[in-house]
Structures are given as structure tokens and as C-alpha cells.
Amino acid sequence: MNSDPALQALVDAVATTRAPGWLATGATMLTGSAKTQRQFGRVAEQLVRRSRKNRAPHTMAMISGSTRQDSYLLIWMSHLDGQGQADPRRFLRDYLEAKKHQMWMTRAAGFLVDARTAALTDVLFDNRAPGADPGLHALVERLALRPPARTPRSLPPPFAQRGR
Asked: From the CB of residue 99, how many other CB atoms can be counted at a distance below 10 Å?
């Protein structure tokens, strides 16, 4: 297959889980441009490096698609056992649901990555139709998510991420 090797490894790991949404998620990531595939393939590695450096969990959300109907929210989260959230899977689930609601996306997937081994440990999927939901609105508020207008449009260059 002609795709980014790091992305192909992620898609293979997602497929191995057979978690709900694994096929749609893998297919969506593989349909992106070469640049987008490289970005998707490198996110976990970037978050793992950050977690190893400061011993804290990190998240990154990216949107793929050309229209709201075919758009997809992808969220990666690195975690270290005993650091940060008591239950990283629960935090990722809440974050995924809240961000999907905030952005009014039709589909979202989350990837939980162990920062010690860089292995994918869980895949979450949500394809519920967006709509008014007071509980999800309260979750957005509780998590203090940045409004979409204040969200960075792209990753800073690698040297900026390392503080150089």
C-alpha cells in the first residue's frame, strides 16, 4: 500500500483492536493527502516524547474531511500509568465526546497511547448524530475546552515544540 509507514503502522494497530469503528477510522486516515497522512502518522510519537519528557499525559485533536458531513475528528492521547488522570480511558472518552459535540462532528475516534511503550492501548469511536445535548454541553464547560476559534490551525514546527 502506498501510504506513510508510520500511519500504516497505526492503521494496522487500530485494525488489530477490532474496536467499534476500526474499519471506518482506518479508511478515513488512509484517504488523506500525503501531508495529512504524515501528520496522522507522527502524532502519537510527538505526544509520547512530550509525556516522557514531563511525565504528564498529552492530547492532540485533528479534523479531517472537506464538508461537515464527511468530516472526522481524531484525538490522540498519551498516558503514563500513575500519572495525570486516574482513568485515562475515561478521560479520553469524555474529551472525545465533548470535543465532537463542541465541533458538531458526525464521527470521532480516539487513540490511547502508552507513553512508556508507544503502543496503542485503546481505540474509541463515536458516530452519534450531533445535536443539542445539555449533558454534553456541560461536559464541554467542565473540561474547559478551547473554543474552535482559539484552536491552532496547525502544529508548530518541531524546533518550537522543543522550546528552542
From this structure: 26
Which amino acid is present at 120? L
- Return the bridge partners of 108, or none: 73, 126
96 Cβ contact list (under 8 Å, min separation 6): 73, 75, 108, 109, 110, 124, 126
CB 103 within 8 A of CB 63: yes
Backbone angles phi, psi at 65, to 5 degrees: 125, 165
What's the CA gap between 92 and 78, in Å, rounded? 10
Sequence-distant (≥ 6) Cβ neighbours of residue 54 within 8 angstroms: none
For 104-119, the pLDDT digits (tens) are 899 999 999 999 999 9
Single pTM value for the model: 0.83
Share of the chain above pLDDT 70, in %: 86
Q: What is the pLDDT of residues 8-27, one digit of tens each?
A: 999 999 999 999 999 999 99
According to DSSP, residue 148 is labeled: G
